[in-house]
Amino acid sequence: SGVEGPPAKRLRCMGQAPRGGASVEEANARARRVVLVGMRAAGKTTLGRVAAQRLGKQFVDLDEILEREVFGCKINAFVDREGWAKFREAEAQLLADVVLRGRHVEDEASGCVVATGGGVIETPSAQEVLQQHSPVIWLDRHIDDICRCLEGVGSYRPSLGSSPREIYARRRPLYNKLSDFVFTMRLGDENWPILERRFAHLAAWASADAASGRGLPASNPVCVPIVANSVDEACADIAEAACQGAGLVELRVDKLEGGAEAVEAALPRLLGAARAVGLPTCTTFRPTWEDPNAGYKGEEGPRLQALRRAAALGSAFIDVERGAAEAFAAAGGVPEGSPTRLVVSSHDFSRLWSLDELRSLASELRRLAGPSGVVKIAQMAGDSAAAARMLAVLQESGGKATVALAMGEAGVFTRLLAPRLGAAFTFGCLSGRASAPGQPTAAEMLEVYRLGAMSASTEVFALLGDPVAGSPLPAVLNAGLAAEGSDAVYVPLLVRGCTLAELLAALPDGLLSAASVESALGRAAFEAAPHRDALAARRGAAVALRFSTGGPPEALGGEQEEERQNERGAAGSVEELVLKALKHFELLRGKAPAAEAVAAMRRAAGTSEGDGACGKQ
User: Where are the beta strands (DSSP E) in 263-385?
Assistant: First the structure.
């Protein structure tokens, strides 16, 4: 759907007069009625019911009302007796009653979530209702999953008459035309708890957007950069970012082909595509004088004007470089009355500054950004201890909106732990589409490390070593932590270009609870810890460190590990990996994992397959 681009309905101007002759009060009441459209088996009832519960809204299922209050029988019996035309007529009438007139809505103040039949959009009178109404959300589940769920499954509903693929091909343009928002599900995406959270946020976003012209804050701190060269590709990438659960997207419009004029022309479509999937945007028009890999080499005036245009169109953030901030303010700055927040950024691709230099820079950027703005610092880390300074900057930001990241492989852990220290957001890319060195994928950040649930109270465990990027332990241990419902995360922490003691000294005090130590660093970990348990003291090496706030770490000896176990998964059996992960889990947590955690860790390690069920309908 991203390649087609959003239809005119999704590009309507914010704050325009209510459609269909409705008063402002009636328009606001309608905005609280969220309408769901989509194919049979798309998940309208499952996701709609959960979203309504989470948002404090009534759930209205048109099929249920038709059977209970209009037909007095099941839909298939009515169609057999009266035919499809009579059914569609009654369905369209009920849609208008609920959506336009508020009938069957118990509490207008809170509103409702309305699940429609899959074919309602093929009735002309229903199309008129949906064209007038906002918000309408299209649940676009992958057609292969829909077909798999419908094949051989008995249903009280009448036959579709044609194959699901033929019907989807016929209806797809109508779903796209008549919807304001799209909830796309990837092939095989049946993690229903995550889908339910994503959809509830989109429903809340849609209702707020339709009522006020403004969306809600990001659902999580993972920002996905959109670096495509064409508008079509960028819209497709925005849709993909939404599927992966991104909290917001950075529109790197400097990467688009053409100059500033082409960027201004593309902004409505790009912002419309992001709005349609419930994603706030940060618009960035990076010049090569700030980033040698950026795409813009033109004059400053048109570039800054394009950023002001993005703010006028509703971009949640616009990124202006430190070197251009004063010129941007002189050119008018963020348009008056706009809710857009200014991000003032600084990048250094050659080195990472000293802590005192970073503090001074952060203070300058804060002055330029203003009280409601965001400070962003990104610098290349040559070693891990230097990278850790960025976490210190976040810790010292005092709750003010700040983004501080170390680029490069040595700085990956700063991207994973930034939300733990209160960062405004962090960056994760689509696979193969990074905008800066060292960006993990958004899917990994959200699915493995659960950054969407990370907070200041999240307990942090780490894997210390070099290399750590290929270790399977984080995926396995995090699966166990998630299964137990623990507010905890296990991150790889590269020790490179510095000693282990230097890295530990540079990390914010109290950040780590405990850490696994790869065998090559066992002696260094032992020497860095004045307190040692009996096993560590006997061997002169540690397999883990336990930390206490304000005090030195304790070296743990653990059980003897066999040398044949490969810590990066290149050799050894899956069972050996599971046993290793279980040992580390117990050592770090101080207790054995629960049964559900063990099962989840085995699945993550590949010893058992996930559920192959069709999922809830």
Answer: 281-284, 317-321, 341-348, 374-380
